[in-house]
């Protein structure tokens, strides 16, 4: 397939670009294989200079078109030519609804040009071949292809664990992806369990996702594992190797918890179709806890309803609150945080190991294990540590980004496997950052950048559904890593939290309904101006860099000191 075959009209003059809160700009619209560009015309209605739209077409979620036909006219006959009829003053409006929730409007002169532009954008935004996507063509001058891809090797993470215990080992049994097509080549497993036992256990788990180590809690040696559901089926089949694997994790007399992210009813229904749960008789040391988390269509529809409500400027207060409640997005946030807190509590306070799984083990399972680590581990709350967590617990762990992030909240296409699990995780992390403003080294801007890049990106980090697919597509050899870009010194500054102060403690968030708030920085990002907030953040960053505020003393400790010792207050504080 050639991109040129999908572009019916490449250039249109006198196009007017507009959007909510944006000044109208007239200019020349161009369509390339991956971008929509608009350069403003000098003079006329445009501001002096050049204003450009540079939109990645992959970012377009829905295209809506409306044409206006203002009548027909007949031009005079020339040289005996037959008389023809033409449209008089025809024009069209294209509304582009983007995956990052931005909404743009293009006023295009000429009905044919309008229809051609809309058709071209729809065709280009629907290209589903990974190797035809923009990251395979993007070549920035200041980055090398190999940069960023090997920042977070699993070997490095394992060495930290090996320095504290010898009960775990790094296995490469999945190096050819035959044991489990959605796991990475290397996994951390109990040292006492052989690879042959693991292979047999994998056959007893959906998709081959046998229990592997997700997190080792250094304060007491407990661990968090993740897997998919066991294939017990209606006949309650058993697997001795799977029982040995989970039994090895616990010493005699110890207990562990299995957190199932399905309801008890859903787990029971799964057994009738070949899935199921771990029976108590076969896993006597493990206690099962059901904490249902939505995934798939209910979560996607919740996201769509929330965005619709946020974009409706006509709502009264009562109607807004009613729609906010009916979309249930904040309930999903609360449920995810509550389940992650439960996993963290089992590890840290109950001193019990945990196995987390739902059905496939690639969605809500990863949501819980990743969130629990942000709560427990101060290393995961640093800029680099958080990136490593995403690499390990989302990307390498097999979250199907290509399927889940194929469409965002505006698409008119029939829902298939789309679901905003990763967005839900980012929202939960934002809730943590709001409740603990000094404890995360990164700020909201990083979470927004991650959301944008998960749905449409210049970089290859979130491409494909698992490591096997990335190897087949040679993603790491032919695209740039998002981490390489984010960790450039000048770029990294934009994402740091100027209030950050290292907090070695576990951060226990409040999950009371009153504590869960709408993430306005994301859902209202393009609806209301953020100029003053941006200016405030820039000023805070400037003060920190200029050392006008104590660099190593947190605002929290200064406040505590001033309360306990009024004499210690500065003149300004008084």
UniProtKB/TrEMBL annotation:
Pfam families, A to Z: Myotub-related
Region (Disordered): 547-574
GO biological-process terms attached to the record: negative regulation of autophagy; phosphatidylinositol dephosphorylation
Every Myotubularin phosphatase domain range: 148-523
Transmembrane stretches, start-end: none
Superkingdom per UniProt: Eukaryota
InterPro entries per record: Myotubularin, Myotubularin-like_Pase_dom, PH-like_dom_sf, Prot-tyrosine_phosphatase-like
An example molecular function term from Gene Ontology annotations: protein phosphatase binding
GO CC terms in record: cytoplasm
Family, as annotated: Belongs to the protein-tyrosine phosphatase family. Non-receptor class myotubularin subfamily.
Name of the protein in its database record: Myotubularin phosphatase domain-containing protein
Organism name: Anas zonorhyncha
């Amino acid at each position: 397939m050639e991109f040129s075959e999908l572009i019916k009209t490449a250039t249109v003059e006198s196009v007017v670009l507009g959007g909510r809160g944006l000044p109208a700009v007239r200019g020349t619209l161009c369509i390339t294989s991956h971008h929509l560009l608009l350069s403003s015309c000098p003079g006329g209605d445009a501001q002096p200079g050049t204003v450009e739209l540079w939109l990645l077409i992959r970012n377009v979620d829905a295209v809506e078109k409306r044409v206006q036909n203002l009548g027909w006219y007949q031009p005079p006959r020339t040289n005996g030519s037959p008389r023809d009829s033409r449209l008089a003053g025809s024009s069209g409006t294209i509304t582009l609804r983007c995956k990052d929730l931005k909404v743009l409007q293009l006023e295009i002169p000429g009905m044919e040009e309008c229809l051609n532009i809309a058709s071209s954008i729809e065709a280009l935004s629907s290209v589903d071949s990974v190797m035809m996507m923009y990251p395979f063509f993007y070549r920035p001058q200041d980055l090398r292809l190999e940069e960023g891809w090997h920042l977070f090797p699993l070997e490095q993470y394992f060495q930290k664990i090996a320095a504290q215990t010898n009960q775990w080992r790094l296995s490469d049994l999945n190096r050819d992806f035959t044991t489990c097509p959605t796991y990475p080549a290397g996994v951390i497993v109990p040292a006492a369990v052989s690879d042959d036992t693991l292979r047999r256990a994998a056959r007893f788990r959906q998709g081959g996702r046998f229990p592997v180590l997700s997190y080792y809690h250094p304060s007491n040696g407990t661990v968090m594992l993740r897997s998919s559901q066991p294939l017990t089926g209606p006949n309650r089949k058993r697997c001795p190797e799977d029982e040995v694997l989970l039994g090895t994790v616990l010493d005699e007399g110890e207990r562990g918890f299995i957190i199932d992210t399905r309801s008890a009813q859903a787990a029971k229904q799964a057994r009738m179709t070949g899935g199921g749960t771990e029976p108590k008789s076969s896993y006597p040391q493990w206690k099962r806890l059901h904490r249902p988390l939505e995934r798939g269509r209910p979560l996607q529809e919740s996201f769509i309803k929330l965005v619709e409500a946020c974009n409706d400027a006509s709502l009264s207060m009562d109607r807004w609150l009613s729609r906010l409640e009916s979309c249930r997005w904040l309930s999903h946030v609360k449920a995810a945080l509550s389940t992650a807190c439960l996993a963290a509590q089992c590890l840290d306070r109950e001193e019990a190991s945990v196995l987390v799984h739902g059905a496939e083990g690639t969605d809500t399972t990863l949501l819980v294990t990743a969130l629990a680590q942000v709560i427990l581990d101060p290393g995961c709350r640093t800029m680099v540590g958080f990136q490593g967590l995403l690499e390990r617990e989302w990307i390498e762990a097999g979250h199907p980004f290509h399927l889940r992030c194929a469409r965002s909240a505006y698409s008119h296409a029939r829902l298939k496997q789309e679901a905003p699990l990763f967005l839900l995780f980012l929202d939960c992390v934002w809730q943590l950052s709001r409740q603990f403003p000094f404890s995360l080294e990164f700020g909201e801007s990083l979470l927004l950048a991650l959301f944008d890049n998960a749905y449409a990106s210049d970089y290859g980090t979130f491409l494909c559904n698992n490591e096997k697919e990335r190897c087949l597509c040679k993603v790491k050899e032919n695209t740039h890593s998002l981490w390489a870009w984010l960790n450039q010194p000048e770029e990294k500054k934009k994402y740091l939290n100027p209030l950050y102060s290292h907090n070695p403690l576990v951060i226990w968030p409040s999950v009371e309904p009153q504590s869960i708030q709408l993430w306005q920085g994301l859902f209202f990002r393009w609806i209301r101006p953020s100029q003053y907030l941006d200016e405030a953040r820039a000023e805070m960053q400037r003060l920190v860099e200029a050392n006008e505020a104590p660099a190593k003393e947190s605002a929290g400790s200064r406040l505590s000191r001033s309360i306990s010792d009024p004499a210690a207050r500065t003149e300004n504080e008084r």
